[in-house]
Amino acid sequence: MKRIKNFALILTFVLFAIPAAASEADPHMGWRVIDFIIFVGILYYFLHKPISDFFRNRKLSIKQAIEDAEHLLEKSKNKLSETEKLYQTVDEQIAKIQSLYQRKAELQSETIISKAKEMAESYRLNINEALTSEQEAAKKILFKELFDKMEHQLVETLKKSDKNVHKKINEKIIASLRSL
């Protein structure tokens, strides 16, 4: 209703202005202005609702787009803050990982060193056993050679001596060999 009053008010002002303009220029000018005003009125009557609906819908769609953009902006800001928090903790996480792997490396190093020590001790014991067995074998060989030489010398000495002495020496040698 208010629109109709506004339209009537504007139409009244224009109608009062028409005779003044028509008298000076063209006498048919007043009718042309009236025709134009009627044409604009008809356009307004028929197109007012579709145009106002179009602009109302456009206003709502723009408002919805702005709200969607604000919502998307808020989500983006939240995502950015989460990413910044993660970025800030990256250095701490790197330090933790480095510390963990440093400790693992130290443990592996200690394990390798202890195994190497065990192997060295085992080799040392094996070498000592091998040396001991070699010494025993060498002693046996030396004793055998010594015994053979002594026997040979004894036999040679006995050949030169008489038979009774020879018998006594044999008995002593057999007794001493039994005691070994």
Cα-to-Cα separation, first versus last residue: 145 Å
Global Rg: 64 Å
Mean pLDDT across residues: 80
Sum up the overall morphology in one term: rod-shaped
The H-and-E topology, N to C, reads as HHH
Number of DSSP E strands:
0
| Overall SS class | mainly alpha
Helix share of residues? over 70%
Total domain count? 1
The biggest beta sheet, please? none
Poorly predicted spans:
none
Number of helices: 3
The percentage of residues in β strands lies in under 5%
What can you see in these coordinates?
Helix content is 96%, strand content 0%. The chain is mainly α and 180 residues long. It has one domain (2-179). Helix 1 packs across helix 2. The longest helix is centred in the middle third of the chain and has 132 residues, at 29-160. The radius of gyration is 64 Å and the shape is rod-shaped. The relative contact order is 0.02. The mean pLDDT is 80.
